[in-house]
Design goal:
By secondary structure, the protein is α+β, with helices and mostly antiparallel strands. It is built from 8 helices and 15 strands. It has a 13-stranded mixed β-sheet, with helices on both faces. Strands 3-12 form a two-stranded antiparallel sheet.
Length: about 350
């Protein structure tokens, strides 16, 4: 997992969306020539406190293309993209019922065009498009302290469904692991074990590992089957300081990696799961990894070490809105399955 991927061409583009005209604003789909404008929108949209950051990627679409069915909506004025929002449609289950849901992300508006209703126009176009496709509902993940965004989404019909935690870990253990290394082996994804652990959860997706296979995906397991998956999220996009210039290609390859942990199996055996976790962090030390991240449902009964050894924790609200008349999600009592690509 130490060799970074070179820049590459993707075999596909986000799906095409219809074109709308509202006054002097055109809402349309993405074209490759939009990328320089969209990366400029990213640069002009820092977030996070107290150290604002932006997401660098070689192309704006790289994050959307992690998903099987992505779409990008662009607001254009005078022939120039001035706002953007991205979505990914997922086939999953809620309360045992097969549903199509949408994840909304990467919404950016140029500072000179904010408070002019463009974000609302984008939102209306997006929701109309999703309803036409029979999508049952849409969700977004918003930092719990971002009250302005939460209030805005609640005004248009979203409600708070779950609290999600984003945990960060240093690549070295805070607590020194026992001297004897556990017997670990790299394994292909055991979908049976993952299905057993997560298959009954709302939002379950069986293909996350397949979707990130090209980004140094590994699954480390004990012989007993306890296991954790990890992929290099920084090969898709990297969080950098808002004051930092876009890195050159050489600098990209030298930057510290960010590994995303997911699909943990064996939470009922905390000692064994911690052995896998510690080994992943040992590997991270020698793999130029800056940090490891893990996103979980707050209600998830994960072992205590997951919280004890985290160096930082950020709370997000998962906000959900039904899109089809008469559809009300019948959430199960279990925590939702968290898509490792979402944050």
């Amino acid at each position: 997992m130490t060799d970074p991927l070179p820049a590459r061409e993707y075999p596909r583009l986000p799906g095409m969306v219809p074109t709308w005209t509202v006054g002097d604003t055109i809402i349309r789909g993405y074209f490759p020539q939009d990328d320089p404008f969209l990366m400029e929108l990213e640069r002009l949209s820092p977030r996070g406190e107290p150290r604002p950051f932006v997401h660098f990627r070689r192309r704006f679409i790289d994050r959307a293309l992690l998903f099987e069915e992505p779409y990008i909506f662009i607001a254009e004025k005078d022939g120039i993209p001035v706002a953007v929002t991205s979505i990914a449609i997922k086939n999953t289950v809620i309360g045992g019922e097969a549903v199509r849901i949408c994840y909304s992300f990467d919404t950016r508006v140029h500072p000179q065009y904010r408070r002019q209703g463009i974000a609302n126009i984008l939102q209306e176009a997006k929701l109309h498009f999703l309803q036409s496709l029979g999508v049952h509902g849409i969700y977004a993940l918003v930092v719990a302290s971002n009250l302005a965004s939460i209030n805005m989404l609640q005004k248009v019909g979203f409600h708070k469904a779950r609290m999600i935690l984003h945990l960060t870990f240093p690549p070295y253990p805070i607590i020194i692991p026992p001297p004897e290394e556990p017997l670990l082996y790299e394994a292909p994804v055991s979908q049976d074990a993952i299905q057993w652990a997560f298959g009954q959860r709302d939002f379950f997706l069986p293909d996350v590992a397949e979707a990130v296979a090209d980004f140094h995906f590994q699954r480390l397991c004990l012989s007993s089957g306890m296991g954790i998956s990890v992929f290099d999220q920084s090969l898709v996009y990297q969080q950098i300081s808002a004051d930092e210039p876009w890195p050159s290609e050489a600098e990209i390859l030298q930057r510290g990696r960010v590994w995303r942990i997911f699909d943990e199996v064996g939470i009922q055996y905390p000692d064994e799961l911690k052995a896998v976790f510690d080994t992943i962090r040992d590997l991270a030390v020698t793999s130029n990894v800056l940090k490891l991240t893990w996103i979980i449902d707050r209600a998830d009964p994960v072992p205590g070490f997951v919280f004890e050894e985290a160096s930082a924790q950020k709370d997000y609200w998962l906000l959900f809105q039904s899109l089809q008349v008469g559809f009300e999600p019948q959430w199960t009592n279990a925590p939702v399955y968290i898509d490792a690509r979402d944050l």
